[in-house]
Design brief:
heterodimer, A: three-stranded antiparallel β-sheet, globular, disordered N terminus, B: 246 residues, mainly alpha
Chain lengths: 257, 246
């Protein structure tokens, strides 16, 4: 049997290899990567390269309701208290009995004093919004394909194609949808799709004074969301429904649902 | 050659027409870009992405208002974006002269974050809006871009902590102790040997509250000769806690 490596030292073998490599191959690979960079900088938005998600730190939320207020102003959501794309809930967990949850006008005007007849064990605020499920029930039930999951992981509603049948509102286990009273179509949080595709943060993330909301891309190592997911024990709402939500809650109490 | 049975010909025509009209209807009714990426209209993604936005983002503010921005970035409010308080400002960025963002005034806005609420995380600065300096606009004492807490006169509050904390939430918060009390310099070194003097006559209160005093207009006025008769002001009004007026 011929012994390998005896007639050609390793160093010589490597040198021969590098000589055999055509130099133009190297040039092409550099130019190729430069081209893709330029295309990105010119604002060629490629949806398939993104996968958006949001983190919510319940310990940081002060219930000021600025997120719900900004969302209404940014997305022209009707001002009546029943229509929200995002809202803040107050949980009051008594020493005995059921947890109480309220959200007067989504928290925009602040929260009144809690009733004094209960012994409060814990109380905290939970911001809520569309969970942009990876396995969305609302998309499954839409009969016309007006609600869909875009390639960057955002669940959107096609205004001009929605027939307003309300199936998706029924199907959403998080109550994150409503029927727009003027447009007569289903409406919901879009992660401010018109902002994030231009590199801006969603309005609710922009105005959150305590950084309770963290927005980013779950696939990108440099994203603040990855840091959030790495350093917090996160949970999702109603995991037993297998909807795979993309809104992750940190420090969520077992009572949060 | 076998001919088709006669009754099949009209059936065939009906089938061709039905299937043909189905294709025509499908062609007319299904949007052009439907199914390009999935069971939806691909053009809708671009339409949603093309919507106008109203919040410009705080970096847009820093371009022109760098002084205020730098002040804020080095204060407790560093994480609070400009548009949290000033409202959406994209219109202002586009046309700075035509549209000016709002400025929250009075006492309504700040308690949305800083009013006491048991559900807020502990450690977040909170006040009771009803007793904390009732009636005064927050901005009288606090600069929102650098909300370091205003200090009562340190030299007095070092010893008279209880009075200072009472006065701090009263309407007299901005009145220095020395406006009413005459303090000999030795008092700071040896307080019991040289006591600070309390006011002796109504005239001290009259400096601001007399009907002919030259103080700010918002300060309540009384006729010093008719009001209260032979009593001193502080027989009825405790000056360190003036909202306790009956």
């Amino acid at each position: 049997m011929k012994k390998l490596g005896t007639d050609m030292p390793r160093r010589e073998f490597l040198e021969n290899c590098s000589r055999a490599l055509p130099p133009w191959l190297l040039v092409f690979s550099v130019v190729g990567s430069a081209e893709s960079l330029v295309a990105d900088e010119e604002g060629q938005y490629d949806a398939s390269k993104h996968n958006y998600a949001m983190g919510v730190d319940i310990h940081r939320c002060i219930g000021c309701g600025r997120c719900a207020d900004a969302c209404k102003k940014e997305n022209k959501v009707p001002l009546e208290p029943t229509f929200f794309r995002t809202w803040v809930e107050r949980y009051i967990i008594p020493t005995s009995g059921e947890a109480r949850v309220d959200s007067p006008n989504g928290g925009i005007d602040g929260f009144p004093e809690p009733q004094e007849d209960i012994d409060v064990l814990r109380t905290f605020f939970v911001p809520k919004l569309c969970n942009h499920c990876a396995n969305p029930p609302c998309v499954q039930v839409c009969p016309v394909g007006a609600t869909f999951e875009s390639r960057d992981g955002v669940v959107l509603v096609d205004d001009s194609y929605c027939v307003g049948c309300r199936y998706c509102i029924q199907a959403c286990p998080y109550g994150a949808r409503y029927l727009h009273p003027e447009k007569k179509v289903a409406d919901k949080c879009t992660f401010c799709y018109h902002r994030i595709t231009k590199g801006l943060a969603p309005a609710c993330v922009e105005v959150c004074p305590t950084q309770a909301r963290i927005f980013g891309e779950s696939g990108q190592q440099s994203s603040p969301l990855r840091h959030f997911l790495r350093f917090n024990d996160v949970s999702v709402l109603k995991p037993w429904l297998n909807t795979s939500p993309k809104v992750y809650y940190a420090n969520a109490d077992g009572e949060v649902r | 050659m076998n001919r088709l049975p006669r009754q099949l010909t009209p059936l065939l025509v009906i089938f061709v027409v039905a299937i043909g009209s189905l294709f025509v209807a499908r062609h007319l009714l299904v949007p052009r870009t439907f199914g390009e990426y999935g069971h939806y209209r691909a053009a809708a993604v671009g339409e949603i992405a093309g919507q106008e936005f109203t919040y410009a983002g705080s970096l847009a503010c820093a371009d022109c208002h760098s002084d205020v921005y730098d002040l804020k970035q080095n204060s407790f409010h560093a994480g609070v974006a400009c548009e949290v308080c000033h409202g959406p400002a994209k219109r202002h960025v586009d046309a700075p002269d035509e549209f000016v963002p709002e400025k929250p005034k009075g006492r309504g806005f700040c308690p949305l974050c800083h009013g006491y609420n048991p559900s807020r995380p502990s450690g977040f600065p909170q006040i009771l809006p009803d007793v904390h300096n009732a009636g005064k606009a927050c901005m009288t004492c606090h600069e929102p871009h650098n909300p370091t807490l205003p200090h009562p006169p340190e030299e007095c509050s070092a010893c008279h902590r209880e009075i200072a904390s009472k006065k701090m939430v009263s309407r007299h918060t901005n009145v220095a102790c020395t406006v009413c009390h005459t303090v000999p310099p030795e008092h700071y070194q040896n307080p019991r040997l040289a006591l600070a003097k309390k006011p002796l006559s109504k005239a001290v209160c009259g400096q601001c509250h007399a009907s002919d005093a030259s103080s700010s207009r918002e300060i309540p006025r009384v006729d010093m000769t008719a009001h209260g008769g032979r009593y001193q002001c502080w027989d009825c009004h405790y000056p360190h806690y003036p909202e306790a007026i009956q």
